[in-house]
Specification:
TIM Barrel; two-stranded antiparallel sheet; 11 strands; globular; binds flavin mononucleotide
Length: 235
């Protein structure tokens, strides 16, 4: 085996209680063709199945939204707070997992970009008062923060119940966790504010209930693509 650059790539690895058959984790991608009720279609299942057939140990379903009312940034979205989505998501997990891959749900919330797609934009919150996409978005009051934390937790629990074997937290692309994680956009002075040295604390406060619900039994990871790194944080 000498001369092989990644000698462990095809070796199994155990994370938490889950064994992954190798170390190839397909990065999250969304498949944005859903039914009118926002359910995954057979074509969508086939798309993720192809990744499992290709041999990835984990296949990640991109952008599964934690809140139908406050978290969607487009007309159509897989959502994790609609009990009626359970059957179609469960079928997707079965299809991926029958090839020996672990199916991961990428938990996502659009934050200040939520509901901007509507003719009359719906509610959205930001870390601080500001203008986004041409509309004023207010800072989140404590009650809304606590509600959002609940949504993240419940979504992780729902993902686990319908059959996902892993959750991935979407902390990039300017969505909610990214907005709260960057000292450039979260300049709050209260306990929800972020300083560079503790940049990760806030999102994990957001996600703390999900720990109680799922992290003991299913692994989780945090995806944070950082296209623009500055000295002050990610932009
Ligand atoms: C078609 C497509 C859809 C994507 N969808 C998502 C997504 O839903 N969530 C996400 O975090 N990243 C998404 N990404 C970004 C990828 O996860 C990955 O970070 C990016 O493609 C860079 O990795 P690569 O160089 O291996 O392609 C998407 C990328 C592509 C090409």
């Amino acid at each position: 085996m000498s001369g092989i650059r990644y000698p462990h790539l095809f070796k199994p690895i155990r994370l938490g209680g889950t064994v992954f058959k190798n170390r190839i984790f397909a990065s999250p991608t969304g498949f944005r063709d859903f039914t009118a009720e926002d359910f995954i279609t057979p074509d969508g299942c086939a798309y993720y199945e192809r990744k499992a057939l290709g041999g990835a140990a984990s296949v990640c379903v991109g952008e599964t939204c934690v809140s139908n009312a406050f978290g969607k940034h487009g007309e159509q979205h897989l959502v994790l707070d609609n009990p009626k989505a359970a059957n179609s998501l469960g079928r997707l997990c079965n299809i991926v997992q029958r090839h020996g891959a672990v199916c991961s749900a990428e938990l996502q919330h659009a934050g200040w970009a939520a509901n901007r797609h509507r003719d009359t934009p719906g509610p959205a919150y930001a870390p601080i008062d500001g203008e986004h996409d041409g509309r004023f978005v207010p800072a989140m009051p404590d009650s809304a923060i606590e509600d959002t934390i609940e949504h993240w937790g419940r979504a992780a629990g729902f993902a686990k119940r319908v059959g996902f074997g892993m959750v991935t937290l979407h902390a990039g692309h300017g969505w909610q966790l990214h907005q709260w994680m960057s000292p450039l956009t979260n300049t709050r002075r209260d306990r929800w504010g972020v300083r560079l040295k503790t940049a990760c604390a806030c999102p994990f406060q957001f996600c703390s209930p999900y720990g109680a619900m799922s992290a003991q039994t299913i692994p989780s990871r945090c995806a944070s693509p950082a296209p623009r790194l500055t000295k002050a944080g990610t932009a």
